[in-house]
Amino acid sequence: MANGTFSREEIEKRVRGLGEWFHNLDLDGVPTAPNHFLGDYPNVKWRQFAHAIPESLEGKTVLDIGCNAGFYSMEMKRRGADRVVGIDFDEAYLAQARFAAQVGGFDIEFRKLSVYDVAELREQFDLVIFMGVFYHLRHPLLALDLIHEHVARDLLVFQSMLRGSDESEELVEYDFWEKKIFEKPAFPRMFFIEKRYGGDPTNWWIPNRACAEAMLRSSGFEILSHPEQEVFICRRKAMPDGPRPIYAAMRRDDG
C-alpha cells in the first residue's frame, strides 16, 4: 500500500527519533537499519523460507510473537491475512512497528505482551510466528507449551539460533544405564549462556538442531518442513494422553 501521509523527510526524522532499529525496513525508500551486521535483515532470511508459507492467507488470522519492528507482521498482511496481531515486550520495538505499519498502510494490532502471557489474548490463530525469541528465554520449553495450549490453532513458524551439531534423529527410549547415547552428535542438547553471547546478555539457551526438533515435538508440534537452516514449519497436534507438564498447576484460571 502506498504511503500518502508522510514525506520522505518526515519518515527519515521519525526513523531517527525512534532509536536503533533491529529490522531493516524499507519505509517508502527510507531504510531503517542499512548498516545491519547481518545485512538486509530480516529480508535476507525471509527470502530463504518465504516459499514455505501459504501464498494466500485470505481469511486467516496471524499472531507474531516477538514482532520487533513488525517485518513479518507486515509480510503476512501483504499475503492477505484477515487479522494480524503482533506482540512484543519492548515498547521501543512496538513504537517502531506501529510507525512502520502506519507508513505502509497496514491495519495491524500491536500489543505489549511476552510469550509467557499469550493466554491473555484468549484467542487461537491460524498461523503463529515465533522467530528470534526462543534463545532469549530463560524458560523456553514453557513458552512452547503455552503457545501450543493457548494460541496455536494450526501452523507454527519457528526459528531459533542453533549451535552445535546439525545432525538430527528422533531417538527412541533407552535404558537408565545407557551413557554412550549422550555422546552422539545427534543427541538433543541445549547450551546455557551464563553471561553474554555475541555481547547480548539476553541470550540464555541455544539448542542444537536435534534439540530444537525434539522440543517442538515434545510440545505437540509436528515438523512439516525445514526450509531454512534455523526455520521449522510445524503443525499443531493434540497432545497424546499422558502426564501433563509439571507446571500445569501454575496456569492461570481462564474462568
Question: Can you give a write-up of this model?
Answer:
This protein starts with 7 loop residues before the first helix and ends in a 19-residue tail after the last strand. The longest helix is centred in the middle third of the chain and has 14 residues. The protein has six helices and eleven strands. The protein has a seven-stranded mixed β-sheet with strand order 5-4-3-6-7-11-10, with helices on both faces. Strands 1-2 form a two-stranded antiparallel sheet. With 255 residues, the chain is an alpha/beta fold. It has a single domain, classed as Rossmann fold (3-Layer(aba) Sandwich), CATH 3.40.50.150.
What is the CA-atom radius of gyration, in angstroms? Answer: 19 Å
Predict the CATH topology: Rossmann fold
Integer average pLDDT: 92
Shape: globular
Strand segment count: 11
* Side-by-side strand order of the widest sheet: 5-4-3-6-7-11-10
Helix/strand order, N-terminal first: HEEHEHEHEEHEEEHEE
CATH H-level superfamily title: Vaccinia Virus protein VP39
Topology diagram in text:
Blueprint: H1 8-17, E1 26-27, E2 30-31, H2 43-49, E3 61-65, H3 71-78, E4 83-88, H4 91-104, E5 109-112, E6 125-131, H5 140-151, E7 152-159, E8 190-192, E9 205-207, H6 209-218, E10 221-228, E11 231-236
Parallel strand pairs: 3-4, 3-6, 4-5, 6-7
Antiparallel strand pairs: 1-2, 7-11, 8-9, 10-11
How would you briefly describe this protein structure?
With 255 residues, the protein is of the alpha/beta class. It has 6 helices and 11 strands.
